[in-house]
Amino acid sequence: MKRSENEYAVPINIYPSLWKSLLFVIGCMAFAVIGYWIQDNPSADPVKKVLFGWLAILFFGGGGLFLFLVTLYSKIFRIPLLRIYDDRLEHYLLLKGVYHTLHFANLRRFRMIKSRGVKMVAIDYKTAPMIDKMEHSSRWMQALMIFSFHQNGAIAFITVQNLDTNGKELCELLNARLKQFRKASTNEKEDVGS
């Protein structure tokens, strides 16, 4: 896919897929109904009622409802999960309601991976920004980043399962923007040096 120079100046918004999210919500609700049947069964063991009944209702029912509300909120207010600019990537953090910015100057590349059946775009940081990110994170986040790095070779990911864009296309788009950013940065340095 060949792009013109002006296309890189316009941000690209990536939204959650309503249909993929609804399928996941239906799956969660099915497990919640099964949990209700277990809990409602008078001949079931009380331990099973609590472990499999109530926990399934709370976990799957609550998780499915939360996902449905978040997806609905994102669709109504047209909140993109990803905004790709010519010099940065902004990733929407659902629980905080803010965008986390990843500057292309701190990144090496993006690559597709599959970890335990989940497709993701791995974000490979340059060494110094990666160390800085690790040092300024909580101990809990540091432990997660170290685990992720040992498992997949990257400390940050974008899950592409529920996006309205194909994961491979998203990865190619991000790498194209990163390449364009590097080209523009090199041209600026040459202009300053002249």
Q: Strand count, sense and closure of the main sheet?
A: 4 strands, antiparallel
Helicity range: 40-55%
Beta content comes to: 15-25%
Order of helices and strands: EHHEEEEEHHEH
Estimated radius of gyration:
21 Å
- Uncertain runs: none
Task: Estimate the mean pLDDT confidence.
Answer: 86
Principal-axes shape call? elongated
- Summing up helix and strand content along with how strands pair, one would put the structural category as alpha+beta
| Spatial ordering of strands, largest sheet | 1-2-3-4
Q: Could you tell me how far the N terminus lies from the C terminus, measured between alpha carbons in angstroms?
A: 33 Å
Count of discrete alpha- or pi-helical segments spanning 4 or more residues = 5
Number of strands: 7
Features:
alpha+beta, 7 strands, 5 helices, four-stranded antiparallel β-sheet, elongated, single chain
What would your notes on this structure say?
The chain has 194 residues and is α+β, with helices and mostly antiparallel strands. It is 54% helix and 20% strand. It contains five helices and seven strands. The strands form two sheets. A four-stranded antiparallel sheet has the order 1-2-3-4, covered by helices on one side. Strands 5-6-7 form a three-stranded antiparallel sheet, sandwiched between helices. A hairpin with a 3-residue loop joins strand 2 and strand 3 (88-93). Helix 1 (18-40) packs antiparallel against helix 2 (46-76). It is elongated, with a radius of gyration of 21 Å. The two termini are 33 Å apart. The model has no long low-confidence stretch (mean pLDDT 86).
